[in-house]
Write a structure and sequence with these properties.
Layout lengths: L2 H9 L7 E5 L5 H12 L7 H18 L7 E9 L6 E15 L9 E10 L8 H15 L4 E7 L3 H9 L3 E6 L1 H5 L6 E7 L5
Parallel strand pairs: 4-5
Antiparallel strand pairs: 1-2, 2-3, 3-4, 5-7, 6-7
Length: 200
């Protein structure tokens, strides 16, 4: 999410919308990709061919990751729920992925860690609790895998993500690409982590 979009998301009141968290299914992919593009690449919509190219690329990447064993990867979606019937409408308003990734060290065969990525909420559904629910579900999955710490990255200019992660108990533990960011070649990325405690 760009900083301008983040500011708009924080200042715009939205109608509360009930939702449910579940594992992503193959038929969810077009909606998942749309949420990711609206959150991370809103400028791509201005160029139709670029938007189409990015949509196809992201969808194929996720489709490949969905083949990963369930004890190493999960893609989650937040889907809306009909208020009257309490049944899912199938509309995807948010997504997140949790996976086991090698630590970013120079060691040969570095140990793996629980890594959260692609946490995104549709612009019209922000500030309703879906992001917190997706975070909590990813944390539960990480604990089930046997991890007691979870990690994620975000860009330093993303103030909305910083606020969300601080509320959820994440703390900065590393700055990625500091040289490239000082040279203005890439935005500064912050690695955050959170100690996970077993439910009491």
């Amino acid at each position: 999410m760009s900083s301008a979009n983040a500011e708009r998301a924080l200042s715009t009141p939205y109608q509360w919308q009930p939702f449910r968290i579940r594992s992503a299914q193959r038929q969810d992919l077009p909606q998942v990709v749309a949420v990711l593009l609206a959150s991370f690449y809103p400028q791509a919509q201005a160029t139709q061919w670029l938007y189409w190219l990015m949509r196809v690329g992201i969808q194929e990447d996720i489709k490949t990751r969905l083949k990963t064993p369930a004890n190493q990867y999960a893609c989650l979606v937040a889907v809306t729920v009909d208020v009257h019937s309490a049944q899912s409408t199938g509309e995807v308003i948010g997504t997140a992925e949790i996976s086991q990734r090698p630590c970013e060290t120079w060691r040969f065969l570095p140990p793996k860690r629980a890594y959260l990525s692609n946490l995104a909420i549709a612009p019209c559904s922000r500030r309703q609790g879906a992001a917190h629910q997706l975070l909590q579900t990813c944390e539960s999955i990480a604990l089930n895998w046997g991890f007691h710490r979870i990690y994620l990255h975000f860009t330093a200019i993303n103030s909305a993500a910083q606020a969300l992660d601080a509320q959820a108990g994440y703390q900065q533990c590393e700055v990625s690409n500091p040289i490239l960011s000082r040279l203005k070649l890439r935005p500064e990325r912050l690695l955050l982590s959170k100690r996970l405690n077993l439910p009491t």
